[in-house]
Specification:
Helix content is 29%, strand content 24%. It has 353 residues and is an alpha+beta fold.
């Protein structure tokens, strides 16, 4: 209008614009819940994988220090990437040592742990008693067996932690070790995408490097399920104490001092204090029950049938308690046992009770 006043339509338009400015534009899509970099895993899922494996390796590191002569071991700061198989191979241009082990059960899929060859040599030397951790010029069969055992313990301990966090049991297959001379020797999991986790690997001034963990999308997806929920706390609920009535005897709960009272600080949890305690390790091929008359009739050439089938794993007992199962191998002229399965802590405890 020419007199400078506003028409009703103009006033309505201005009010509508003010409402648009004041009203929220709606929740912006969080970056955590959109596909990251064009992969099938969102940032939230990648963070869940990172948290899951991070807690698992953190719980495994103290136990693995005992294999390294008590050297302090740190495996942590996981970085998760989702890549194509070709992109993964491009990350490994030199010689590496790979150890493969599959998970089964509530979380299942393929694991491949890849070490720098020099790092693998240092770890195997420490496990074989060389306190300097000097890597050998060439990884012998014995060195490969030790790095295989180290990784088997790492992934088995991680499986136990993952099972406790996600619920359900997680089994492991026997570990296999191969020296990869080039990227195409890597036995990376099948699929269009591979989840690669890179950890910091530090051992007491001997190793300061990286450790690589490759897994298929099935295993990675399993780690995202239930990872955000806190682990269930299995606690016994204390019975409620009723207010004593007139004439009754008052009852109050007994209070005990903490178990660690009087123990010097820093002593608790130091497993190195008992590393020199001798223990008897027994390999049991099998058992059977016979009558006295049958035992008295044994002689040279007698055959005793055991309760195990040919090819079944043998039992490894420490001080009479079952801790693992394995398969019999021959090293030079001596028998040995390759560990194929570690008895879970829950099973060991049930055997003690």
């Amino acid at each position: 209008m020419g007199d400078g006043s506003l028409s009703q339509d103009e006033i309505d338009a201005l009010l509508q614009g003010a409402d648009d400015m004041l009203s929220p534009a709606g929740p912006a899509p969080a970056a955590d819940f959109g596909p990251a970099g064009g992969t099938s895993f969102t940032m939230a899922e990648q963070n869940a994988i990172r948290d899951s494996v991070g807690m698992a390796v953190q719980s495994a590191a103290p136990m693995l220090s005992g294999y390294l002569g008590g050297k302090n071991l740190m495996i942590g700061n996981p970085v998760v990437e989702v890549k194509s198989p070709d992109a993964v191979r491009a990350d490994f241009p030199r010689q590496y040592v790979q150890v493969a082990l599959d998970y089964g059960g509530s979380v299942s899929g393929k694991n491949l742990v890849v070490f720098n060859k020099r790092d693998a040599g240092s770890i195997s030397s420490l496990m074989m008693g060389d306190e300097s951790g000097t890597p050998p010029a060439d990884l012998s069969e014995a060195h490969q067996s030790t790095i295989q055992e180290f990784t088997n313990q790492l992934l088995s301990s991680m499986a136990t932690q993952i099972a406790g966090t996600h619920g359900g049991g997680v089994s492991t297959s026997p570990a296999t070790v191969i020296v990869a001379n080039n990227a195409y020797d890597l036995q990376i999991p099948a699929g269009k995408e591979i989840v690669k986790v890179t950890y910091d690997l530090v051992i007491d001034g001997i190793v300061n490097s990286k450790l690589y963990h490759l897994m298929d999308t099935g295993l990675a997806s399993g780690l995202t399920r239930g990872a955000a929920a806190p682990p269930q706390q299995h606690m016994m609920q204390a019975p409620a104490f009723q207010q004593p009535q007139m004439g009754s005897v008052g009852v109050s709960p007994v209070k005990f001092p903490p178990l660690d009272e009087g123990i010097p600080q820093g002593v608790g949890g130091n497993i190195s204090l008992i590393l020199d305690v001798p223990m008897t390790l027994t390999v049991e091929l099998g058992r059977t029950t016979q009558l006295v008359q049958d035992i008295l009739g044994l002689g040279e050439g007698s055959i005793i049938e055991l309760d195990k089938l040919a090819g079944e794993p043998v039992d490894l007992l420490v001080n009479g308690k079952l801790i693992a199962k394995g398969e019999v191998v021959v090293i030079d002229e001596n028998f040995g046992v390759r560990v194929t399965d570690i008895v879970s802590p829950a099973e060991r405890l049930s055997g003690i009770q």
